Every structure is written in C-alpha cells, then in structure tokens.
Amino acid sequence: MTDSVAHRGPDGEGYWMNPDGEVGFGHRRLSVIDLSESAAQPMHYLGKYTCIHNGEIYNYTELKQVLIARGYFFRTASDTEVLIAAYHCYGVECLSHFDGMFAFAIWDELEKTLFCARDRMGEKPFYYSFFENAFVFGSEAKVLWAAGLPKKVNEPMLLNFLSAGHVNTPLDLTISFYQQVFILPPAHYLRLSMPDLELSLHAYWDADKESMLKISEKEAEEKISHLFGQSLTRRLRSDVETGSTLSGGLDSSSIAAAIHGTGKFRQKTFSAVFPGYEKDESSYIEKVAARFDLANFSITPKVDELIGDFEKLCHYQEIPFTSSSIYLQYRVFGLAKEHGTKVLLDGQGADELFAGYSKYIHWYLQELFRKNPLNFLSEKRALNRNRIPYHWSWRNYLAAWFPAQAAIQLEKREARKIAGNPDINPEYKDQFFDRPSIYKPLVMKLNDQLYFNCFRQGLQDLLHYADRNSMAHGCEIRLPFLNHELIQFLFSLASSLKIHNGWTKYILRKTMEDQLPSEIVWRKDKIGFEPPQKTWMSDPQLQDYVQEGRKILVGEKILKKEVLNKKNQPMDAHAADNFDWRYLVTAKCIF
Questions:
Q1: Helix crossing, 303-317 with 579-590: angle to 10°?
Q2: What percent of the chain has pLDDT over 70?
Q3: pTM: predicted TM-score of the whole model, two decimal places
Q4: pLDDT for the residue 264
Q5: Which domains, from first to last, does the chain contain?
C-alpha cells in the first residue's frame, strides 16, 4: 500500500501494528519540518496514541506554546507531535485550533477507536473503503487498490465528465470517481470503533456566507493585508527550501510581493511561458521578477513532452482532468524540484474568494439589478468602459427576479448537455444517466455562487490536481489565500467590494495597489495558466493519440463506433465542449 504512493513520501517509511493485530499503520515521509529521525511516523504519544499525518499544521509553534503552558512537554520539533498533544488536550475541538492543510489518523489504544480528520478546504486528500471485513484508508485511491479493492469506475460520474467536464457530485462529497472508494469531505472528521467497525461522520466547520460586516473599503484592505500576511508568514515555516509559482497574474504576484516583504530570503519562483503565444504571460512575469529581484526559472513544455508524460500524469492524477493546464502545473512543480525547492507557495483559491473569474460578473449584476437598479446601470457602464468581457442577455433579467427558476433551468441545460452528447453510446447513456447528480445552487447573491465554487464544485477539483502534481515530484504546495480566517472574512464582505467600478477582484487589487506594478494590479485580461492547447491538439502525433483514446472508449461501449470517423476538433484549454481531450484523458486514466 505504501509503495503505491512512495512518490508522496520519498524521504522515509514507517510501519506499525498494534499488539492485538487489529490496526496497521503505514507512512511515507516527506520531510519538511523537523528532518530528524525522532519526527518519523507512525508517531506514538503517551503510550496511548499512534498517529500518521499528511500535510502541515502551520500554526504549530503558537499552539505548542499554549500546550507547554498547560503542562505538556515535547521531544521533537515537529508539528505532528503538537497535533497529537492538541488532540489529547482538546479532543475533537483540537480541529478548531488548527490553521493547516492536513489529513491524519489517530488510533487510541485504550479506547480502541480511530479518529481521522481532514482540513477545512480539503487541500490534503483522504480516501477510505470497507472491504474484506476491514476499514482501509490512504492519501490516494491507488492505496485501496493495492490493498485488494477492485478498480471500477463510477459510471454516472464518468458520463458527467465526458459530456459536462465534472469530476465530482456536489450534493455528496463522499462519492468518488470510483466504486467503493469514498472521500472524507473537507472540514469533516470520522470516528471508527472496534471491533464492530462502526463509523460516524461529522462536519466541524463551515464558512458563513450570510452574515455581512459593515466595514469601509480602507478597513477591509487593512484586515485583508493583516490576515494574508499572517497566513503567508505561517506558510513560510519550513526546514527546507521554499519558493513560489509565478504566472504573472495578480494572485501569484501578490504572494511574491508578500514574501519579498518579509525580507527573509531571495526567493526562487517558477513559471511556464510560451513566447509568441497570444496568451503568454512572460512580460508580466519579467516585471514582477525585476521589481522584487526574484530568481525566476521558467519552462516551455512541448507537445511531444506532453505525449511522453501523459500516462505518467494520468497515473498520478487517478481521475480525468479537464485540460492540459494540469500538465503545465505538473512541469512547473518538477522544475522546482530540479532547483532544490521542496515547498512552493501558490495562489489557488483567490479567484473563487475574491470573484476573479468573468463568470461571476453576471451573478453580481443580477444581485444588483434586484437590489439597486441604479447601481446596476452604473456597474454595467463601468464594465463596458473597462472592456471587461461578460455575458448578459434578457435571460439574466429573468434570472434576477426568479433565481429558483434560474437554478432549475441551469440544471435542465446541464442534463440536456449530458443526454445530448451525440458521441455517447445510447445504451451507455440510458443505463448510467443520473439526473440527481446534476445540481445548480440557488443564487440570490454573489456569495452564493462563490460558496458553491469554493466548497462544492470548482476549487475542490483544482486542489486535487495541485496535490497530485506537487506530490508526484515530492514537493509540498501551500496556499496562503486558503487560511480559514481570511476565507471567513472575505465571505463577510459586501459583493460591491469584490466586483466594483468595472473591476473583478477589486478589494485585492486595492490591497496590493502600493506593492505591485500597476500593470499587474490593474490588468484587464484574465489568463488562467493556459497552454497553447489548440495548437497542441492540431499536432498529428497528438491527434493519433486522441484516436487511440477514442478506440479504447468505443471498445468499452462508451462511445459510438461512428466517433472513429469524426475529424479531430482541436480546442483551447478552457473551451466548454473539449470532447476530444476528455476522451483521451478518460481512456488513459481509467482503462
């Protein structure tokens, strides 16, 4: 089981079984904090607890001081020992004290219970299953397959991915892409008691999207600056070299600026660039690198490299991914490893929290139209003046007045998209089309859509991709925007501080205005870490590879035979109907 995820922990391994032979723990170690052998896992504590832990408790030094004051003592400098001591001190309430990304399991030998938990946002994974009269768990599904669970795809979810690009079921986050493989949802813990293997699942945190603060723009900037700075300082704690990714956008540039502001070290940054490509961000990367004297390293992946790495990439990801942007991230993390950087800070989550995507604009305009028509007209004019692209039609006026009906119509449209894919074998569609798996939220205000994308569908997928890509190279990815205090504060801000005066992500732009070049802060274009996928998909070698994928899915009776006679349809990375890409990645990930 641990051999199947050896890439996640190349620095060591450890095994333990309790005296009664009821519980076995295996751990692969990625040494980041306290590199000594004393911090190895499984870690034992007070002759009672045994723990295995993936991730980091970023505020472990502050927690450690509190626990010392309560009479605890420590034999290591690790965060894992602090985690176990906090559990002994606070019980399940320890989770409310942690600022971190984590998945851990603690066996209590005296109580004969297993306690497992996952961080609030789900940055670190936790999979489990019951089979052969055992409870089996690990950081990836391949751990369960190594233990003997058959690898069988969740067919309704596969159908949803092929036609709509979704890889999860937003109403039930325990369901995975594979049968009998379950996910411990973010911000949840479980208890398992022996000998009957009775499991209970509990939520321990949720963001409040309803309570609004009355706060000035300046006060909001100051609070964001404080919380972001605190989050970043904690996420720089490491006993190995730390750097960051740099795309040239506002989020990664904000992290580079904040790290520079600490004055601790000259940071290394890592980028993917495509000189000559219309969506290349080299010029912005160069501006930030020059401003902060960064040691920037870049890579330009080629289509033949994508083909050569594709099956390895699929092996690490385990589930299909929607575009080749995932490959850029994979290569950037590999570049960091080549340059001796084991921990990387990254800007994921900022778009979902600050409303950075253009798709959020129409949700905000609908909120404004319903609440304040004059502000609606003013904001619409400002967006047009800034030439910010957004979609708006007569349907949005109706959606503003009838949001419940709008959610129903969006669900129907999604169902038509899945049912109407002309390439899918009709028998497969009839057997596995699952209407209840399609869900669109009731959106009364911008926060409703941001919440859905943060906690139900959107960011969760990106966190999966980032975890797998980083751990494939024995690197750790840390996300300063996903500190829970910062998240809760942002959900308490009025929508008008997130989209304002013709700008998305307005309050973050204002917060960083004095720290970054204006060309970065007030960029009007939004490029989502995008490779020249359309060009790649036009390459004859990759087209042959796509055809090979189609043949596999035809052989599995998922696609019609006629698909083999269709011309390839090269599309950009974020195109809605990127079917050829989905067919290829499904064939290589699943079969």
A1: 50
A2: 100
A3: 0.96
A4: 85
A5: 3-203 (3.60.20.10), 217-300+322-354+465-521 (3.40.50.620), 533-590 (no CATH)
